[in-house]
Structure formats: C-alpha cells, structure tokens
Design brief:
By secondary structure, the chain is an all-alpha fold. It contains nine helices and no strands. The chain has one domain: MetI-like fold (Orthogonal Bundle), CATH 1.10.3720.10. α1 packs across α2, α1 packs across α9 and α7 runs parallel beside α8. The longest helix has about 35 residues.
Length: about 280
C-alpha cells in the first residue's frame, strides 16, 4: 500500500520581517542598555566643548550645551519607545473596547458610537494630539495621553470592522442561538480570532505614535528640556543647522530608523496574517 501524503502550504516569512525584526531588536536593545552603554550622562552639560563635530571621543559630536549627542540619542530611544508603547497600548485597549461595544450593542448605540468615531477619524491623529496637548499643557504625561486618545478612533474603527465581520459567521449565530451572552461570546470566540489583526494594527500604529511624539516635542508641547527625546533634540538643534548639522542629522536618522523598522515589521505581519492584503497598498 502506498501512503499518499498531502503537502500543507506553508507561509514563507517575508524578508521584510527579518530585516525589520533585526532593526527593531537593535533599537530595543539600545534603548534598554542605554544607561550602561552611554559614555556620558545625557543631561550633563559641559562634558565637552560646545558644538564639537563627530569624532573618536564624541561619536555624534556635542550640542550647544556641550552635552554628548550619542548619549542623548540613546536615552531618547528609551523615551520615544516608552511613549509609543504606552500610547499604543492605551489607545488600542480603549479603542478596541469601543469597537467591540459598537459591534455587539443595539442599533441606536451602535449608530451613535459609529458617528462619533467617523467624525473623529476624519481628523488627522497628529491634529487631535496637538489640540489635546494645547489644552492639557506640555509634558511627557500629557503628550502620551494625547497621543493615546488620538489613536482611539482608528483602533475603534478597525476593531468594529473585524468584530462585525466575525459576528456574521455561522458559528457566532449558532452560539447566540445557544444562549451564550455577549460578554462570553466576545471573550471566548471573537477576541481570539481578531487578536492577530489587532496586534498587526498595533505594530503599524507604533510608528505613528513615535512620529507624533517627536512632532509634539519639536513644537515644544511634548517632552520638555533637558529630557533627551528625539523631537526635543531636533527642536533645540534647529538654530544650529548651518554650524552644527549633526545635532539634527543623528536624532533624525534615529526617527527614520525606528519608523522604518516598525513599518517593515507591521507590513510583513499584515501580509502573513492576511495575504489578500498584499499588493493593495
């Protein structure tokens, strides 16, 4: 007897996931190890002469106060990634709860929630964050809260779409007929099936949160000096763009590095979770 074997299709890991994963791992490692690998205190002034060009002693040069720029960029990774993680997790939790509530509520509440979400979603998230920080006042806590709130409409809309599509499946209808309540239905059946897509959306939103944090700090509404956040470093160095361009180049490259790594990981994960999305962007 000849045994027939059926080959199961395997999903090939995209190269972008490998590249983005390595870049992101390096970024996270630099952020976590910053206190030990930074050659100088990132906030200490006068460790070197003002506006020194990059060299062997000061790899990224020094800023207008004689602070080591390499140490400040490393410390900025901790701040930027920390703001991104807190903002995305908070926005995803609140937006996801609103989206699930809209998907499994009555017609009136669903319509009201969706109309509010649609109105907020029509505004850029950076504009929402900017308005909230202008109202709440500058600072790292208010900036993180503002970015989290600005992400809520996006995650609410995504969660509602995923949950509504999942709730239309036959097994959900059967579970409803069996008398299973909405809370248990969401916890046991819906959330496990949409969790992958929400994680992918969270990864993609991470880069937006980092850009928003940098933008707010650049405008003086986010992290305040002397904290070494990337946007704040850019803001303080813009007056020296002709004399000391490295003050803008290195934190700018750090932002590009982080956003590119997160987008590569997010796009690759999206292609793995739903290959039909590939090529639609």
């Amino acid at each position: 007897m000849i045994a027939a074997t059926v080959a199961r299709p395997s999903r090939k890991i995209p190269p972008g996931l490998w590249i983005g994963g390595v870049l992101l791992a390096l970024l996270v490692a630099a952020a976590l190890l910053a206190p030990w690998i930074s050659p100088y205190d990132p906030t200490k002034m006068g460790v070197g002469k003002r506006l020194l060009a990059p060299g062997t002693q000061y790899v990224f040069g020094t800023d207008e106060f004689g602070r080591d720029l390499f140490s400040r960029v490393l410390a900025g990774a901790r701040l930027s990634l920390g703001i991104g993680v807190v903002a995305v997790c908070t926005g995803l939790a609140l937006g996801g709860a609103i989206g699930l509530l809209a998907a499994f509520s009555g017609q009136f509440l669903r319509s009201a929630l969706l109309r509010v979400i649609d109105v907020l979603y029509s505004f850029p998230d950076t504009l929402i964050a900017l308005s909230l920080v202008a109202f709440l006042g500058p600072g790292i806590t208010n900036a993180t809260l503002a970015i989290a709130i600005s992400l809520i409409p996006f995650y609410a809309r995504v969660t509602y779409g995923l949950a509504a599509a999942e709730s239309a499946r036959p097994y959900i209808e059967a579970a409803k007929l069996a008398g299973i309540g909405h809370a248990r239905l969401v916890r046991v059946h819906v959330m496990p099936n949409i969790a992958q897509s929400l994680i992918v959306m969270g990864t993609l939103g991470f880069s937006s949160a980092i850009l928003s944090a940098a933008g707010l700090s650049f405008l003086g509404l986010g992290v305040q000096p002397p904290s070494p956040e990337w946007g704040a470093i850019l803001s303080s160095g813009r007056n020296y763009i002709s004399k000391a361009p490295w003050i803008l180049i290195f934190p700018g490259l750090a932002i590009v590095f982080a956003v590119m790594a997160l987008n590569l990981v997010g796009d690759s994960l999206r292609d793995l979770v739903d290959p039909r999305q590939k090529g639609r962007r």
